[in-house]
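TA notes. Do not distribute before section.
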Amino acid sequence: KAIETSTYGVIFMGTPHQGVNLLEWAQSCSDGRSLGSLQDDPLLKTLSLYSGALQTQLSQYDPISSRFETVFFYELYGTHYVSPCVPEFSAKVPGDVNTESIGIYKTHIEMVKFPSKKDADYNNIVYQLRRMV
């Protein structure tokens, strides 16, 4: 309750609220393990599209989400040979109000790595943070 009362805004950086395409993601990130073993990984199952765990989280966040200003950042570039790991539809909370969705011109891995303070994506995030403070 204290966190809820003390929070004005929330920024999510490539958070897969709706999950990710597990097969595509597993193929791009495979480190030599078979796809079968990756698909059986409990963490990956939790992150799969529309998983029960993610839907439960959304149902818990939904009743309080309108109390916060929220910005959802999502990557515009794919990682390796795959489309973005967390596309815009998954990076947003469906039906959320007081929100904005902004694409970052980076891959999922690079989303919070900036070469300098002159980087346009860096400045966009700083702008959103300053707006909330």
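Switch to the second chain here.
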Amino acid sequence: MQSISVKPINISENDGLNTNLDEEDDPNSRYNRGPHIEPFHRQRRIDGTLSFSEQTTKMQHIISTNGIDGRQMKNDNVLDTELKGGIWKETIHNGIGQKPTLGACVRLHYYAYFEHRDEPFDTSFKRRRPLEFRSGKCDVLPGIDLAVSTMQRRERAKFIISSDLLYGELGCIPHIPESAWCLYVFELLITNEPSTIFNDDQLLIKSPTNRHQIDDFAKRIRLAQSLRNIGNEEYANGQLDRALRSYNKARQLIHNKVTLIDGKHEEQYHQLLLKLHLNSAQCYLRLDDFEKCFRACRDALVIEPNNLKALFRASVSLRSLNQLDEAKKYLSKAVVIDPQNRDILNEVTKINHALDVLKQKKSDQTFTLQETNSNDLENMLSCIAISDEFRSQIDSLLNQLIQSNETSEPFVIQRQNFSETEYYYFELLVKNKQLNINRIDDDIIQISK
């Protein structure tokens, strides 16, 4: 096997193929978050020394209830002394975009506290995953649903919610006290509109009022692009399995639907499908699922045979699978396309090193096998329990056969004249002297040069 060779070149520091996604796919680049904000899980979120009544004086009373059964009341129609419950809000960090609509799928992190407590009694970080539910569908407690419906994406806010919108008068003993008001700190991560929740088999849009089949390919493209953007955000957050699911759903939505588009839309279709294949390949690569990574790269190369990222990731996955010859073929194409790329040059070094190691290993194995066979036979012959007289006689007979001319007749023996141990020794000695054994039948054996 020959190593890949490249000419000495100047390496550009700006080149790189180990970036997770395309630059335009980086979800964080779309948000201007302003000054640096300390991560949510490291911030001190509440002051447990203050009672809820003191904290609500500085918060906005966004929803008012009667404090008994959660029935909402309008502030204009009642006195302040009659407002016995509801939801109070204080925005910690402003968000962007629209508020969740009815049926939208939301994902958020939260901390939940009782009054005069510094430690939360519940948090999404204990489960190591965000809370997910559909807005306005009674998937969570009413107070949580109403509070989140007032937030924007990326918004962080503190809420104090009365017991009638949470666990009620009885609570949930022993975990939740009776008539317990709670303080929640929410950070809304993602809001997916209902139009992005679809049944892939029938390609139906689900909405609170109706369903209709998607016939327009432009709608397919928008839905697939929306799913791809969600996957990019999940990838940026390290949720690789979720990102893969989003990419796969988007690909299934538009794949093999070329008959629905005309020539001017075909390029848009292929470019979106190519990005989905490349993003999936990167996820599989980070998950060390090299076989699926290679398949995704192969699908991408069907669309664009000289795609640099697909060639590079295919080479990395094949090298990891110890298919060095195939890996070298893909990497050779990548070197021709961009011989100055730093990641490609690093991969060239790795493959050349792997080829050298494999060659040396095979050479060592061949030498060791030849040396071991001879030494092992000598050791085995010396360990067999037979008389020295028998050893001397057999060795003398075989030496005479070796020194005889080519026309001499073969040496014939009858097995019944030997014990099992003696025959075993005789057979090994013949092999060690590199003579031929020809079995005439079960009892007669010929020995020849």
